[in-house]
Write a structure and sequence with these properties.
By secondary structure, the chain is of the alpha/beta class. It is built from 9 helices and 12 strands. The protein has one domain: Alpha-Beta Barrel (TIM Barrel), CATH 3.20.20.
Length: 296
C-alpha cells in the first residue's frame, strides 16, 4: 500500500511547496483538490477547471521533480438534480472537464462526488446506476483515466456504492473508501472490506471518536450518539485489523490522510502540519508506505 494525503485547508502552501514537503516526509502521492466550478480558489485548493496551461504544467513538473505522484484530483462537482437528459448531460460535461484536467496534470484518477440524493421520484439504486453509466461514458472518451467516488454522510453510504460497483462491473470506477464515514453511518468496516474488497480502489483515512458527554441522551423518542473528528489512532477506526483486511483482499493502492481542519470545521483539531508528520510515522509503523522519497 502507498502513503498519500489530501491537500490541507489550514496551510497556504503552493503546489511546489506541497510536493517538496510530501517528498521530505516520505509520502508517495498527494490528492490535489480542484476548486468547485464557479468559486474562487481558496486555501487547500490547488487547481481549477480554469487553470492556465502554465499553472498546470508547473504543477506537473513540481511533482515530477520530487518523485511524488499526483495520486488523484479531488473534484467538487455537482450531481444531477433532476432525472432528465439535460441534467445528466450537464453532469457528464463537468466530469469530462475534470478528466481532461487530470490528463493535463499527469494523474490517472479523479475523485468525483455525489453531492445530493436522488432526484424526486428516483430510488437510490437506480440513481447510482445512472451515475455509473454517465461516468462510464465520460471515461470512454478519456482513455487512461479512472474514477473513484467517496462514501459520505447524507449521501450514499459505503454499502450502496460498493454494491453498485459490483453490479456494474466497470473496472474503471471504484470506491474511495472512507472508514470514518463508515463508522458514523453505523456500517461494519471490516465486513465491507471482506465482502467488496476488489471495488475499493483508494482509501482516505480520518478517525472518529465516540463523544462520551451526554452519550445516549434520550429525548422521549430518540437516543443520541455523537462522534467527533480526532487525532489519527485515538478513535474508533480499527487500524491494524482494517489494514490486514485490505491486504487480504489484495488492495495495494493509496491510503491517504484526510485531515479537514479549516475555517469552517475541525477547529478543535491539531495543526495539519503536525497531523501530516504523525500520519506518515503512524502508517509506516503499520506497514504502509516505504522509505522517504528524495528531493531532486
Amino acid at each position: 500500500m502507498k502513503l498519500g494525503f489530501w491537500t490541507l485547508y489550514d496551510v497556504d502552501w503552493s503546489n511546489e511547496e506541497i510536493a517538496r514537503r510530501a517528498a521530505a516526509l516520505g509520502y508517495q502521492g498527494v490528492d490535489l483538490r480542484v476548486t468547485a466550478p464557479g468559486r474562487q480558489t481558496g486555501i487547500g485548493e490547488n487547481l481549477s477547471l480554469d487553470s492556465s496551461d502554465a499553472d498546470v504544467e508547473q504543477t506537473r513538473q513540481a511533482f515530477a521533480r520530487t518523485g511524488v505522484e499526483i495520486s488523484s484530483l479531488n473534484c467538487y462537482n455537482s450531481s444531477p438534480a433532476a432525472g432528465d437528459a439535460a441534467a445528466y448531460d450537464a453532469f457528464e460535461d463537468e466530469i469530462r472537464r475534470h478528466a481532461e484536467l487530470a490528463r493535463r496534470v499527469g494523474t490517472r484518477r479523479i475523485r468525483f462526488q455525489i453531492s445530493a440524493g436522488p432526484p424526486p421520484g428516483a430510488e437510490w439504486e437506480d440513481y447510482l446506476v445512472d451515475i455509473w453509466r454517465s461516468v462510464g461514458r465520460v471515461l470512454d472518451e478519456t482513455p487512461g483515466i479512472n474514477a473513484v467516488v467517496e462514501n459520505h454522510p447524507d449521501r450514499a453510504n459505503a454499502g450502496q456504492l460498493l454494491a453498485t460497483a459490483e453490479k456494474m462491473q466497470d473496472q474503471r470506477i471504484g470506491i474511495e473508501f472512507s472508514p470514518d464515514h463508515v463508522v458514523v453511518m453505523q456500517e461494519n468496516v471490516l465486513e465491507l472490506v471482506e465482502r467488496y474488497g476488489p471495488w475499493i480502489h483508494h482509501v482516505c483515512w480520518a478517525d472518529r471518536k465516540l463523544v462520551q458527554e451526554d452519550l445516549a441522551r434520550f429525548d422521549g423518542r430518540y437516543y443520541y450518539i455523537r462522534y467527533e473528528s480526532c487525532w489519527i489512532g485515538d478513535g474508533a477506526i480499527p487500524a491494524r485489523d482494517l489494514l490486514a483486511a485490505l491486504e487480504r483482499v489484495g488492495f495495494d493502492d493509496y491510503v491517504s490522510l484526510k485531515w479537514e481542519k479549516s475555517s469552517r470545521f475541525g477547529h478543535h483539531l491539531a495543526s495539519s502540519e503536525s497531523a501530516l508528520e504523525h500520519f506518515a510515522t503512524y502508517m509506516r509503523g503499520l506497514g504502509v508506505g516505504g522509505a522517504a522519497a528524495r528531493v531532486r
